[in-house]
Amino acid sequence: MTDARPTETRLRIAKFGIGAVVRHRIYPFRGIVFDVDPVFDNTEDWWLAIPEEARPRKDQPFYHLLAENAETEYVAYVSEQNLVPDTSGESLRHAGIPEMFERDPGGTYRMRDRTAN
């Protein structure tokens, strides 16, 4: 006899919101959150390319970041378990930020209003 109950998925509330400045807990990069997936939503090939010992769980929020390290700027997709708040107060230099965000006098990044004129 098989269990006919639907598989239960537990969604967690994302720890970081849009505009949060975060850094990776292991690798030397930081970035700004521009989108959040409540659970893993990338390709299986992407997930399997991560070494098994470092592979994150899929049942957690994943963040799209405008990311940067000392050498370059890029877009990153990172699990919540691998992010911590960036409390440095340093501005981010990513070229995509001015298009998506504005920074208030207190240093907080907010999404730009994208309504049509």
Automatic annotation (TrEMBL):
The record's InterPro entries line, in alphabetical order, gives: Hemimethylated_DNA-bd_dom, Hemimethylated_DNA-bd_sf
* Amino acid composition bias (Basic and acidic residues), ranges on this chain: 100-117
Task: Name the keywords, alphabetized.
Answer: Stress response
In terms of superkingdom, the source organism counts as Bacteria
Per its UniProt record, what Pfam families does this chain match?
A: YccV-like
From the UniProt entry, list the residue stretches annotated as the region Disordered: 87-117
Residue ranges annotated for the Hemimethylated DNA-binding domain, each copy included: 13-112
Task: Specify whether Disulfide bond is a keyword of the entry.
Answer: no
Put simply, this protein is called Heat shock protein HspQ
